């Protein structure tokens, strides 16, 4: 009988995953990760999630183990966030959390305890060492798994890969899972929903500065530059502007935000370059000039493109249609049919 360590998060997707694996005949153990503690918050999400996860494990009659990864999470995820914001770059903590915590240290602990696999309630599909989209494009999470290695994928199971979300909820309610009606989580991975400015202020001291247009005219005063991201529009309703405005630059030395007030068409581009390639399918390491689909942000519709190899581990993506707000240092994921074959950091 194959042994599986399931990340039991306290939410319904992982609970149904554990149930399905047990039903399929696996020897299932629930693993709860403690990655974040907030001693100042009596309603710290970690405490609540642990209680919910324990209820599910007891209900399913499976062993429940607690794994403390607070130090590694702070080092690899939280410090990464702070560091990138201080460089005026918007990070993606979910991608880093998957790469360094959920599918790395959690997998390492599973292997130490002689488990054959780890399992998650993610909306994606694996086959051998390859990664595929979930059946529901609106909830597909393969983009957040874009930095995983072949070994990590080979050891991972996603039991709800062939179920749409209403079906997952239905199963949970039909078998009376304790968390069947618990609403889905939102926000930073393991920290959940927080005010980002308040969260970052714990490490980065706020400092007011000017908001200018591209001609150098002073329009406004920002409260804190790190709160704004490139191409952000929300929160920039400056009085007297006839057109929507967007953040187009952040000047680190002057502590200024530059916004753009001209036509929205200027925000579009039809190509991008990338390096730091992660080959999720090694066959594509040798290919050049192939048709694919790509996305430059989560929940973006797949975009038709041509992938061209410039030289070793550096590529160019040429889109059939121009893309809005291509942001440097974000992740571009490339798909062939429904398989995620390459990913990288946009230059």
Query: Approximately how much beta-strand content do the residues carry?
Result: 25-35%
Ranges where pLDDT stays below 50 over 5 or more residues in a row are none
Largest sheet: 6 strands, antiparallel, barrel
Q: What is the H/E order? A: EHEHEHHEEEHEHHEEEEEEEEEE
> Largest beta sheet: what is the strand line-up?
12-15-14-13-16-17
So what's the CATH class of the largest domain? Answer: Alpha Beta
Mean pLDDT figure = 86
**Helix content bin:** 10-25%
**Structure summary, number of beta strands:** 17
Annotated CATH architecture of the largest domain = 3-Layer(aba) Sandwich
As a whole number of angstroms, the C-alpha radius of gyration is 22 Å
Number of domains: 3
What oligomeric state best describes the polypeptide chains here?
Answer: single chain
Label the structural class.
alpha/beta
Task: Describe the fold and architecture.
The model has no long low-confidence stretch (mean pLDDT 86). α3 packs antiparallel against α4 (93-112). Helix content is 24%, strand content 30%. The N and C termini lie far apart (46 Å). It has helices spanning 12-23, 45-60, 70-86, 93-112, 150-154, 165-174, 196-200; strands at 3-7, 27-34, 64-68, 117-119, 124-127, 130-133, 156-157, 209-213, 218-222, 246-251, 256-260, 268-279, 290-295, 303-311, 314-324, 331-336, 339-346. It contains seven helices and 17 strands. The protein is α/β, with parallel strands linked by helices. It folds into three domains: 3-174, HUPs (Rossmann fold, 3-Layer(aba) Sandwich), CATH 3.40.50.620; 206-262, Roll (SH3 type barrels); 266-346, Elongation Factor Tu (Ef-tu), domain 3 (Beta Barrel).
């Amino acid at each position: 009988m194959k042994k599986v360590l399931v990340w039991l998060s306290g939410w319904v997707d992982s609970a149904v995953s554990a149930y399905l694996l047990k039903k399929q005949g696996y020897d299932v153990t629930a693993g709860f990760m403690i990655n974040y503690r907030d001693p100042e918050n009596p309603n710290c999400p970690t405490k609540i999630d642990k209680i919910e996860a324990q209820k599910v494990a007891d209900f399913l009659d499976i062993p429940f183990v607690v794994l403390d990864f607070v130090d590694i999470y702070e080092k690899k995820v939280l410090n990464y966030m702070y560091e990138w914001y201080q460089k005026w770059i918007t990070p993606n903590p979910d991608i880093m959390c998957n790469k360094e915590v959920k599918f790395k240290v959690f997998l390492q602990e599973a292997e130490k305890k002689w488990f054959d696999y780890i399992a998650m309630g993610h909306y994606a599909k694996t086959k051998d060492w390859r990664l595929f989209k979930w059946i529901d494009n609106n909830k597909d999470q393969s983009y957040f798994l874009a930095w995983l290695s072949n070994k990590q994928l080979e050891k991972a199971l996603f039991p709800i890969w062939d179920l749409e979300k209403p079906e997952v909820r239905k199963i949970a309610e039909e078998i009376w899972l304790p968390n069947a009606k618990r609403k889905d989580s939102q926000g930073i991975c393991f920290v959940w929903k927080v005010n980002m400015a308040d969260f970052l202020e714990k490490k980065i001291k706020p400092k007011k500065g000017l908001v200018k247009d591209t001609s150098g005219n002073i329009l406004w005063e920002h409260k804190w530059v790190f709160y704004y991201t490139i191409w952000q529009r929300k929160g920039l309703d400056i009085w007297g502007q006839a057109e929507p405005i967007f953040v187009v630059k952040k000047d680190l030395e002057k502590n200024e935000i530059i916004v753009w007030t001209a036509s929205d068409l200027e925000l579009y581009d039809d190509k991008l370059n990338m390096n730091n390639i992660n080959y999720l399918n090694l066959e594509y390491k040798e290919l050049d000039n192939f048709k694919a689909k790509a996305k430059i942000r989560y929940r973006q519709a797949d975009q038709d493109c041509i992938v061209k190899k410039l030289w070793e581990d550096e590529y160019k993506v040429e889109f059939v249609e121009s893309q809005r707000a291509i942001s440097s240092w974000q992740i571009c994921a490339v798909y062939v049919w429904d398989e995620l074959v390459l990913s990288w950091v946009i230059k």
